[in-house]
Design a protein that fits this description.
globular, alpha+beta, 285 residues, Ribosomal Protein S5, domain 2, 9 strands, Alpha-Beta Plaits
């Protein structure tokens, strides 16, 4: 098979869940999805929401050029259905691949808008995941209003210390349905998380947001694990997305001991870092 175009996008972890207060914030991590456009049909495993069909639909709807015959080829290190923004990564990487293949020169904000539409159509998001789309496309964090177009959605943004370690505690795929009503019941904690972001403390927000999501989903284990990690030296810890994965931020020297504590519970961890500005330069190049 001949490769006609390719695109990459990051996984991410939550700083503020958009369902809780109408504003969302995520930050990319160095787990990655790579999508290639190939010159013949190719079966893709794991696209349970048929997200790639939605990507193609919205690309065609925009009237953008596309090969007469093509297929998708997907490689990813992002666990699916666990709150690590695999859908945003897949849709953004796929649009980047089409962008590369067709020389259309779409901006990141245009790709983020198309990714939101495709995810809503595929029913793998409630809000369009604009915060997750930005995190999949660019390093650093952005607090966004998901009701706005991508170019106008950013309220405030900042960078993360790329020397910090990010541990992801895996607890299997999501099994529960998300209830917006339950999230709204935790509004006071979500407001605390929002206040932390606005004061320039996104890692404090990550922990507060995790408390709110754990309460909204009755995930008491997530709260216990997060509290244990913080007591063991982590800077921040909380459930990512709607779960069940837990994101833990710590100094590199503490990563091994915190991972060992989690693994003693019979759970797996992935050690990574925040998405790097260097990787973004390489993608553009």
């Amino acid at each position: 098979m001949k490769i006609l175009g390719s695109g990459k996008a990051n996984g991410a972890i939550s700083i503020l869940h958009a369902v809780g207060i109408g504003k969302g914030c995520s930050v990319g991590i160095q787990l990655e999805t790579k999508v290639q456009i190939v010159d013949e049909p190719n079966k893709v495993n794991g696209d349970m929401h048929r997200l790639l069909d939605s990507v193609e639909y919205f690309w065609r709807k925009e009237g953008l050029p596309i090969p007469d015959e093509f297929g998708w080829q997907v490689e990813s290190t992002i666990p699916i259905g666990q709150g690590l923004k695999s859908s945003s990564a897949l849709s953004c990487a796929a649009f980047r691949a089409l962008n590369s293949c067709s020389w259309t020169g779409l901006s990141n904000s245009e790709i983020a808008d198309l990714a939101a539409k495709s995810q809503i159509m595929s029913k793998c998001t409630i809000t369009g995941s604009m915060d997750d789309n930005w995190a999949a496309l660019e390093p650093g964090w952005k607090l966004v209003d998901p009701t706005m177009g991508a170019s106008e959605s950013i309220i405030i943004q900042g960078k993360m210390d790329e020397s910090l370690s990010v541990l992801v505690c895996l607890r299997g795929e999501r099994s529960l349905e998300i209830s917006p009503k339950r999230f709204l019941e935790q509004r006071q904690i979500f407001e605390r998380a929002l206040a932390s972001i606005m004061s320039g403390s996104p890692l404090d927000s990550l922990s507060s947001n995790g408390m709110a999501v754990s309460a909204a989903t009755d995930d008491h284990q997530a709260l216990r694990i997060s509290n244990l990690c913080i007591a063991s030296g982590s800077i921040a810890s909380g459930i990512s997305g709607s779960g069940p994965a837990i994101a833990i931020v710590c100094f590199e020297d503490d990563a091994e001991s915190i991972s060992a504590i989690i693994e003693e519970m019979g759970l797996l961890t992935i050690q990574t870092r925040f998405a790097s500005s260097i990787a973004t330069v390489e993608e553009v190049a």
